[in-house]
Design brief:
Layout lengths: L7 H15 L3 H12 L6 H19 L32 H7 L35 H9 L28 E7 L5 E8 L2 E6 L3 E2 L2 E2 L3 E6 L2 H11 L11
Antiparallel strand pairs: 1-2, 2-3, 3-6, 4-5
Helix pairs in contact: 1-2, 2-3
Length: about 240
């Protein structure tokens, strides 16, 4: 019986993971592994193996491990990309590119008490200080990856925060408001009663993985729910509590 061909998207990701590991670029290895974990074309056994391997990479990263891969046959011919040449003459600064680069983050979360959300140029306070601040594991993981939750919420360093929380919480209610954020996320303000509102986020990208639809903690007003969406899931430049 002929062997099943490996899908191209899977083989490409495997090659990128291998390259990152050979170069000891653990952050890239974690990001590529996370993306492959979310690939629907892999088996559940392989996904579990990838989760275990991601923990290894996370441990290497936290310890700044340097591993000699020169004797590994799969690393043969893999070299770091050359550094870009520096112009000998001073050139005019490209202000548009410089501004666009403000607030970019690495692939791994950071642990400062106030952290800059990825792809944003303002600093937001943490959305919660512990797992009890979040309603679902995907809400917690979103903030973990975006720098607005403490780094210690991922106890086993597998990229998922607060794994004891449910994946989803459905309180019911009706859609009081729907909008698409500047980051491309569709959010709905769900109203259960006059004092109980929550956000429901459609599938969004976290560390290269597409999430299922998930809900957030509750709010006492629609205005508070919409403000939370604007600050943490959209353009936070006008967020009233941004720094």
């Amino acid at each position: 019986m002929p062997a099943t061909a490996i899908p191209e998207s899977v083989s490409d990701s495997i090659a990128e993971i291998n390259r990152a590991a050979c170069l000891n670029e653990w952050g890239d290895a974690i990001a590529e592994t996370t993306q492959l974990i979310g690939n629907s074309e892999i088996t559940s056994d392989y996904r579990n193996a990838l989760i275990r391997q991601r923990r290894v990479y996370a441990n290497y990263q936290s310890n700044n491990a340097v591993i000699d891969m020169s004797d590994n046959p799969s690393c043969e011919g893999i070299e770091p990309e050359p550094e870009p040449e520096v112009a000998s003459e001073p050139s005019t600064l490209d202000w548009e590119r410089a501004i666009a680069g403000i607030g970019r983050t690495s692939s791994s979360p950071r642990s400062s008490s106030t952290r800059t959300a990825s792809s944003q140029s303002v600093s937001l306070p943490l959305a919660g200080s512990s797992c009890s601040s979040f309603e679902t594991r995907w809400e917690a993981t979103y903030h973990y990856w975006n720098g607005t939750a403490p780094a210690d919420l991922d106890a086993d360093s597998d990229g998922m925060a607060c794994e004891h929380l449910p994946e989803e919480r459905n309180w019911g209610g009706y859609v009081a408001h729907r909008q698409v954020s500047t980051r491309g996320y569709t959010g709905e303000v769900m109203t259960v009663n006059s004092n109980f509102h929550y956000l429901r986020l459609q599938s969004i990208s976290i560390g290269g993985v597409r999430t299922p639809t998930f809900s957030t903690r509750s709010f006492r007003s629609q205005a508070a729910a919409r403000e939370h969406f604007e600050c943490y899931y959209s353009n936070s430049s006008e967020c009233p509590f941004a720094r």
